[in-house]
Here is the input.
Amino acid sequence: MKQRNRVALLALVMGLLPVAANAVDLRSQYRLEVVRNMAGQVISSNSSSYADLVSINNKGHIAGNLVNNGTYAGAFWASENSDGKWNVVNLPFLDARGGNYNRVNALNDNDQMVGYSTEWASSSNSKQHAAEWSLLSDGHFLTTSLHQGNFQNTSTASDINNLGQAIGSSFPPGVLSPTMLTAGFNPTPTNPVPTEGWAIANNDMYAGLTKIGGSSRGFIVDHNGIHTDIGIFGKAATAINDNGLATFFDSIDYNNNHVAYDLRSAAVLKAGVEGAITHAMGSNASSSIVGQSFVNNRGHAFLTQNEETWDLDQIFSTGAGQPGWSHLEAATDINDRGVIIGTGTYLDTNHRTIDKAIFVLTPVPEPQTYAMLLAGLAVVGWRARSRRRG
Here is the structure.
């Protein structure tokens, strides 16, 4: 009887999930917040400087980049405090003398980050080299080079999984640390294929691009080392989960929103607003996909899950002239708890417009969820009391 009660309660609670996933109006299911630093200032700057948000991990920590006049000069990591403000830590350059570029591309659940950073030969000569940042016990970060080539070579690290395995690319090939994967689609010494490794899962699967005949072809390598060519994609693989779902920044067919590939079903999948040019930017363990779709030549943040898509800009924006979020431009990542991060245009109470401000969308249980959960607990309690009386 005890086991049946547990199963019944579990079925009751799990049965709530499709209701939340398929509801048309997400306003009651998510809390929308603007990210502020410890001084209460919105993390952003002016029209030529903005926060480029990249990753959120399952601890709720975020990593991104402060962009100044087109230069990634300030990679950062941030954790939210109990008062809703964020503790922002700027990541150090590889070279103690500083540099022109410092970009973080990915963050794992251990607060390890990878990207690239400038190393200097002189004040007029610098190169970007793959880098890793690790959080120390004193709250500072240790910067480590993943670059093994000579100074003139360039490299970048694109992703890091929870095991600390990183993936990236370099020019020329072969200048990355042995701890990194340099992905390739059937390259041979006599027929080298230029490759870019972009995303890595926790079970040795990874995804990237190969340059063949002037075209960028996406590929996935499974945990057995088997390469799968998945067709013409452009620019980057943005994520791959442990189930073999890979997302890509550019699609095979802009008109059909083909920006994802499911290795298990060998199928190209759609995401984003139907018929719009779409960039998939992140996914999670549940295969929910977030990104940006261009509607009337303007970027709209979107969420796609269970083959259904929500235009987050239409749902959550307040409209021009109203305090709050006048525009949600792009959703850049989603963690396994369903928390979505991205950028948009924020209008404060003083009617000051802040471009490229950072938003966080956090799922919240619906009132009926609590009611049904309490009802389920009441049923279990009633049955337990009945057994004791019997």
Q: What stands out?
A: The chain is about 10% helix and 45% strand.
